[in-house]
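stage 2 :: seqdesign
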Protein backbone atom coordinates (compact mmCIF):
# COMPACT_ATOMS: atom_id res chain seq x y z
CA UNK A 1 0.00 0.00 0.00
CA UNK A 2 1.36 3.43 -0.94
CA UNK A 3 2.44 5.82 1.81
CA UNK A 4 0.09 8.82 1.82
CA UNK A 5 2.26 11.91 2.32
CA UNK A 6 1.21 15.37 3.45
CA UNK A 7 3.46 18.20 2.30
CA UNK A 8 3.48 21.14 4.73
CA UNK A 9 4.91 24.20 3.03
CA UNK A 10 4.63 24.94 -0.69
CA UNK A 11 7.42 27.45 -1.19
CA UNK A 12 10.55 26.80 -3.26
CA UNK A 13 11.70 23.80 -1.22
CA UNK A 14 8.18 22.48 -0.73
CA UNK A 15 7.38 22.67 -4.43
CA UNK A 16 10.52 20.65 -5.21
CA UNK A 17 9.65 18.04 -2.59
CA UNK A 18 6.09 17.89 -3.88
CA UNK A 19 7.31 17.27 -7.42
CA UNK A 20 9.62 14.49 -6.23
CA UNK A 21 6.98 12.77 -4.10
CA UNK A 22 4.23 13.26 -6.67
CA UNK A 23 6.10 12.32 -9.84
CA UNK A 24 9.35 10.48 -9.05
CA UNK A 25 8.66 8.17 -6.11
CA UNK A 26 7.53 4.58 -5.94
CA UNK A 27 5.38 3.51 -3.00
CA UNK A 28 4.10 7.01 -2.23
CA UNK A 29 1.29 9.37 -3.17
CA UNK A 30 0.97 13.06 -2.39
CA UNK A 31 -2.23 13.14 -0.36
CA UNK A 32 -2.39 16.82 0.51
CA UNK A 33 -0.43 20.04 0.02
CA UNK A 34 -0.69 22.48 2.92
CA UNK A 35 0.34 26.13 2.86
CA UNK A 36 -0.88 29.34 4.48
CA UNK A 37 -1.31 30.62 0.91
CA UNK A 38 -4.01 28.36 -0.52
CA UNK A 39 -3.34 29.54 -4.08
CA UNK A 40 0.27 28.50 -3.75
CA UNK A 41 -0.84 25.15 -2.33
CA UNK A 42 -3.22 24.74 -5.27
CA UNK A 43 -0.47 25.50 -7.78
CA UNK A 44 1.80 22.83 -6.30
CA UNK A 45 -1.06 20.34 -5.97
CA UNK A 46 -2.06 20.81 -9.61
CA UNK A 47 1.54 20.34 -10.76
CA UNK A 48 2.11 17.20 -8.71
CA UNK A 49 -1.24 15.42 -8.76
CA UNK A 50 -1.92 15.90 -5.06
CA UNK A 51 -5.40 14.87 -3.99
CA UNK A 52 -6.29 17.90 -1.86
CA UNK A 53 -5.05 21.17 -0.37
CA UNK A 54 -5.23 22.77 3.07
CA UNK A 55 -4.07 25.82 4.99
CA UNK A 56 -4.16 24.17 8.44
CA UNK A 57 -1.00 22.14 9.15
CA UNK A 58 -2.20 20.75 12.47
CA UNK A 59 -5.41 19.46 10.90
CA UNK A 60 -3.36 17.87 8.14
CA UNK A 61 -1.04 16.18 10.64
CA UNK A 62 -4.06 14.79 12.52
CA UNK A 63 -5.84 13.68 9.33
CA UNK A 64 -6.32 9.89 9.35
CA UNK A 65 -5.97 9.78 5.58
CA UNK A 66 -2.34 10.93 5.98
CA UNK A 67 0.40 8.43 6.86
CA UNK A 68 3.52 10.62 6.90
CA UNK A 69 4.47 14.31 6.99
CA UNK A 70 7.06 16.20 4.95
CA UNK A 71 7.79 19.58 6.54
CA UNK A 72 9.11 22.32 4.26
CA UNK A 73 7.44 25.28 5.96
CA UNK A 74 9.34 28.34 7.32
CA UNK A 75 12.20 27.40 9.65
CA UNK A 76 10.55 28.85 12.76
CA UNK A 77 7.69 26.32 12.46
CA UNK A 78 9.80 23.18 12.07
CA UNK A 79 10.13 22.24 15.73
CA UNK A 80 6.49 22.60 16.72
CA UNK A 81 5.19 20.82 13.62
CA UNK A 82 7.66 17.97 14.06
CA UNK A 83 6.51 17.55 17.66
CA UNK A 84 2.89 17.50 16.46
CA UNK A 85 3.75 14.74 13.98
CA UNK A 86 5.47 12.74 16.71
CA UNK A 87 2.41 13.13 18.93
CA UNK A 88 0.29 11.79 16.07
CA UNK A 89 2.65 8.81 15.71
CA UNK A 90 3.51 9.72 12.12
CA UNK A 91 6.92 9.57 10.43
CA UNK A 92 8.21 12.99 9.46
CA UNK A 93 10.87 14.21 7.06
CA UNK A 94 11.74 17.72 8.23
CA UNK A 95 13.76 20.07 6.08
CA UNK A 96 16.76 21.52 7.86
CA UNK A 97 16.96 23.01 10.40
CA UNK A 98 15.17 20.69 12.79
CA UNK A 99 14.53 23.89 14.75
CA UNK A 100 16.20 27.32 14.81
CA UNK A 101 17.58 26.91 18.36
CA UNK A 102 19.16 24.04 20.22
CA UNK A 103 16.61 24.51 23.02
CA UNK A 104 13.79 23.86 20.55
CA UNK A 105 15.68 20.88 19.15
CA UNK A 106 15.85 19.41 22.65
CA UNK A 107 12.06 19.60 22.88
CA UNK A 108 11.87 17.51 19.70
CA UNK A 109 14.35 15.02 21.16
CA UNK A 110 12.30 14.80 24.35
CA UNK A 111 9.12 14.14 22.38
CA UNK A 112 10.71 11.50 20.18
CA UNK A 113 12.50 9.67 22.98
CA UNK A 114 9.24 9.64 24.95
CA UNK A 115 7.56 7.99 21.95
CA UNK A 116 10.12 5.19 22.11
CA UNK A 117 10.88 5.05 18.37
CA UNK A 118 12.62 6.97 15.62
CA UNK A 119 10.01 8.94 13.70
CA UNK A 120 12.07 11.93 12.57
CA UNK A 121 14.42 12.21 9.62
CA UNK A 122 16.09 15.58 9.00
CA UNK A 123 16.60 16.68 5.40
CA UNK A 124 20.38 16.63 5.23
CA UNK A 125 20.24 15.22 1.71
CA UNK A 126 24.00 15.31 1.11
CA UNK A 127 24.26 12.01 2.98
CA UNK A 128 22.52 10.51 -0.06
CA UNK A 129 24.47 12.39 -2.74
CA UNK A 130 26.42 9.85 -4.86
CA UNK A 131 29.63 11.91 -4.71
CA UNK A 132 29.63 12.16 -0.91
CA UNK A 133 28.65 8.50 -0.61
CA UNK A 134 31.63 7.58 -2.80
CA UNK A 135 33.92 9.73 -0.66
CA UNK A 136 32.66 7.95 2.47
CA UNK A 137 33.27 4.58 0.80
CA UNK A 138 36.88 5.53 -0.02
CA UNK A 139 37.45 6.50 3.61
CA UNK A 140 35.83 3.29 4.84
CA UNK A 141 38.18 1.14 2.74
CA UNK A 142 41.06 2.37 4.88
CA UNK A 143 43.41 3.34 2.05
CA UNK A 144 43.56 6.97 3.17
CA UNK A 145 44.44 6.04 6.71
CA UNK A 146 42.93 7.92 9.65
CA UNK A 147 41.18 11.14 8.54
CA UNK A 148 42.90 14.36 9.61
CA UNK A 149 41.14 17.26 7.91
CA UNK A 150 38.05 18.00 5.86
CA UNK A 151 38.08 21.09 3.64
CA UNK A 152 34.69 22.38 2.44
CA UNK A 153 33.42 25.31 0.48
CA UNK A 154 29.87 26.34 -0.28
CA UNK A 155 29.31 29.20 -2.73
CA UNK A 156 26.11 30.77 -4.04
CA UNK A 157 25.64 33.28 -6.84
CA UNK A 158 24.14 36.08 -4.76
CA UNK A 159 22.36 36.71 -1.49
CA UNK A 160 19.15 38.68 -0.95
CA UNK A 161 19.39 42.07 0.74
CA UNK A 162 18.18 40.68 4.08
CA UNK A 163 20.80 37.91 4.27
CA UNK A 164 23.35 38.33 7.08
CA UNK A 165 26.68 36.79 7.97
CA UNK A 166 24.98 35.05 10.88
CA UNK A 167 22.59 33.43 8.41
CA UNK A 168 25.54 32.07 6.46
CA UNK A 169 26.31 30.10 9.62
CA UNK A 170 22.76 29.12 10.58
CA UNK A 171 21.19 28.69 7.13
CA UNK A 172 23.96 27.70 4.69
CA UNK A 173 26.67 26.00 6.75
CA UNK A 174 24.49 23.37 8.50
CA UNK A 175 24.79 21.17 5.40
CA UNK A 176 28.58 21.27 5.84
CA UNK A 177 28.32 20.81 9.60
CA UNK A 178 26.28 17.66 9.09
CA UNK A 179 28.13 16.11 6.17
CA UNK A 180 31.55 16.56 7.80
CA UNK A 181 30.32 15.10 11.08
CA UNK A 182 28.78 12.15 9.18
CA UNK A 183 31.89 11.66 7.05
CA UNK A 184 34.25 11.66 10.03
CA UNK A 185 31.83 9.77 12.30
CA UNK A 186 32.54 12.06 15.22
CA UNK A 187 31.21 15.04 17.16
CA UNK A 188 32.37 18.63 17.44
CA UNK A 189 34.16 20.24 20.37
CA UNK A 190 34.70 23.87 19.28
CA UNK A 191 34.30 26.37 16.46
CA UNK A 192 36.07 29.55 15.40
CA UNK A 193 34.54 31.88 12.81
CA UNK A 194 36.43 34.49 10.81
CA UNK A 195 35.67 37.09 8.16
CA UNK A 196 38.26 38.46 5.71
CA UNK A 197 39.37 42.00 6.40
CA UNK A 198 38.31 43.06 2.94
CA UNK A 199 34.77 41.76 3.44
CA UNK A 200 32.13 44.46 3.68
CA UNK A 201 30.20 43.38 6.76
CA UNK A 202 27.16 45.28 5.53
CA UNK A 203 27.11 43.49 2.19
CA UNK A 204 24.64 40.58 1.93
CA UNK A 205 26.42 37.25 1.82
CA UNK A 206 29.83 38.49 2.97
CA UNK A 207 32.00 35.36 3.17
CA UNK A 208 32.80 33.60 6.41
CA UNK A 209 35.42 30.99 7.22
CA UNK A 210 34.81 28.47 9.99
CA UNK A 211 37.32 26.15 11.63
CA UNK A 212 35.68 23.36 13.61
CA UNK A 213 37.55 20.91 15.84
CA UNK A 214 36.17 17.44 16.43
CA UNK A 215 36.32 15.46 19.63
CA UNK A 216 38.88 13.23 17.90
CA UNK A 217 41.16 16.19 17.16
CA UNK A 218 40.39 16.46 13.45
CA UNK A 219 39.91 19.85 11.80
CA UNK A 220 37.10 20.88 9.49
CA UNK A 221 37.34 24.18 7.66
CA UNK A 222 34.28 25.58 5.93
CA UNK A 223 34.10 28.58 3.62
CA UNK A 224 30.63 29.93 2.95
CA UNK A 225 30.32 32.68 0.35
CA UNK A 226 26.76 33.54 -0.56
CA UNK A 227 27.78 36.28 -2.98
CA UNK A 228 30.33 34.44 -5.13
CA UNK A 229 28.64 35.69 -8.35
CA UNK A 230 30.02 33.04 -10.73
CA UNK A 231 27.67 30.16 -9.88
CA UNK A 232 26.58 27.59 -7.32
CA UNK A 233 29.64 25.58 -6.31
CA UNK A 234 30.04 23.03 -3.52
CA UNK A 235 33.26 21.06 -3.08
CA UNK A 236 35.20 19.19 -0.46
CA UNK A 237 38.47 17.41 0.18
CA UNK A 238 39.03 14.77 2.83
CA UNK A 239 42.66 14.46 3.93
CA UNK A 240 43.95 11.30 5.57
CA UNK A 241 47.38 10.28 6.77
CA UNK A 242 48.10 8.44 3.50
CA UNK A 243 46.30 10.55 0.91
CA UNK A 244 43.20 12.54 0.10
CA UNK A 245 39.94 12.29 -1.82
CA UNK A 246 38.30 15.30 -3.47
CA UNK A 247 34.69 16.05 -4.23
CA UNK A 248 34.13 18.01 -7.41
CA UNK A 249 30.95 19.45 -8.83
CA UNK A 250 29.52 17.28 -11.61
CA UNK A 251 30.15 18.79 -15.03
CA UNK A 252 27.81 18.07 -17.93
CA UNK A 253 30.06 19.65 -20.54
CA UNK A 254 33.50 21.19 -20.84
CA UNK A 255 34.31 23.63 -23.62
CA UNK A 256 37.86 23.97 -25.00
CA UNK A 257 38.06 26.98 -27.32
CA UNK A 258 40.45 29.80 -28.17
CA UNK A 259 43.15 28.64 -25.77
CA UNK A 260 40.62 28.50 -22.94
CA UNK A 261 38.70 25.84 -21.04
CA UNK A 262 35.25 26.57 -19.63
CA UNK A 263 32.53 24.79 -17.68
CA UNK A 264 29.01 25.87 -16.80
CA UNK A 265 27.88 26.30 -13.20
CA UNK A 266 24.27 25.98 -12.05
CA UNK A 267 22.62 29.09 -10.62
CA UNK A 268 21.40 27.33 -7.47
CA UNK A 269 21.48 24.02 -5.58
CA UNK A 270 18.78 22.19 -7.50
CA UNK A 271 20.72 20.87 -10.51
CA UNK A 272 23.66 19.88 -8.29
CA UNK A 273 21.66 18.00 -5.67
CA UNK A 274 18.53 16.90 -7.55
CA UNK A 275 19.58 13.25 -7.40
CA UNK A 276 20.43 13.50 -3.70
CA UNK A 277 16.94 14.80 -2.92
CA UNK A 278 15.32 12.06 -4.99
CA UNK A 279 17.37 9.31 -3.31
CA UNK A 280 16.75 10.81 0.14
CA UNK A 281 13.00 10.99 -0.32
CA UNK A 282 12.79 7.48 -1.72
CA UNK A 283 14.88 6.18 1.19
CA UNK A 284 12.48 7.89 3.59
CA UNK A 285 9.46 6.28 1.94
CA UNK A 286 11.20 2.89 1.99
CA UNK A 287 12.08 3.31 5.67
CA UNK A 288 8.42 3.88 6.52
CA UNK A 289 7.57 0.58 4.85
CA UNK A 290 10.39 -1.34 6.56
CA UNK A 291 10.30 0.40 9.93
CA UNK A 292 14.09 0.90 9.80
CA UNK A 293 15.09 4.56 10.20
CA UNK A 294 17.61 6.03 7.75
CA UNK A 295 19.34 9.34 7.18
CA UNK A 296 19.97 12.12 9.64
CA UNK A 297 18.14 11.74 12.95
CA UNK A 298 16.70 14.36 15.26
CA UNK A 299 19.94 14.02 17.23
CA UNK A 300 21.89 14.97 14.10
CA UNK A 301 19.59 17.95 13.63
CA UNK A 302 20.29 19.03 17.20
CA UNK A 303 24.05 18.66 16.67
CA UNK A 304 23.96 20.87 13.57
CA UNK A 305 21.95 23.61 15.28
CA UNK A 306 24.17 23.48 18.37
CA UNK A 307 27.39 24.05 16.41
CA UNK A 308 25.69 26.77 14.34
CA UNK A 309 24.69 28.61 17.53
CA UNK A 310 28.26 28.39 18.76
CA UNK A 311 29.44 29.71 15.39
CA UNK A 312 27.25 32.79 15.66
CA UNK A 313 28.67 33.44 19.13
CA UNK A 314 32.22 33.03 17.80
CA UNK A 315 31.55 35.52 15.01
CA UNK A 316 30.23 38.05 17.52
CA UNK A 317 33.09 37.63 19.99
CA UNK A 318 35.97 36.91 17.58
CA UNK A 319 36.94 33.99 19.80
CA UNK A 320 36.71 30.19 19.73
CA UNK A 321 33.56 28.77 21.30
CA UNK A 322 33.31 25.32 22.83
CA UNK A 323 30.21 23.17 22.38
CA UNK A 324 28.81 20.86 25.03
CA UNK A 325 25.95 18.67 23.81
CA UNK A 326 23.78 16.74 26.22
CA UNK A 327 24.46 13.03 26.63
CA UNK A 328 23.18 11.20 23.59
CA UNK A 329 19.91 9.37 24.38
CA UNK A 330 19.91 5.62 23.81
CA UNK A 331 17.39 6.01 20.98
CA UNK A 332 20.12 7.60 18.85
CA UNK A 333 22.99 5.25 19.63
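stage 2 :: out
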Amino acid sequence: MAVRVALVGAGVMGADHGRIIGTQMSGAILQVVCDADRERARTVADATGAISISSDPRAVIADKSVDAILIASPDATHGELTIAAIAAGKPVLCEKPLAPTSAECLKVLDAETASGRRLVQVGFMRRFDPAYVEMKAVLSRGDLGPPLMFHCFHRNVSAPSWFTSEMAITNSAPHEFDIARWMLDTDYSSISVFQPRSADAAKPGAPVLMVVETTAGQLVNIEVNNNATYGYDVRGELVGENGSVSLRSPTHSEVNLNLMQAVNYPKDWRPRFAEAYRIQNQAWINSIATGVAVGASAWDGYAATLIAEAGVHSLATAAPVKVAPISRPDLYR
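stage 3 :: structure notes
- The chain has a mean pLDDT of 95.
- The longest helix spans residues 269-290.
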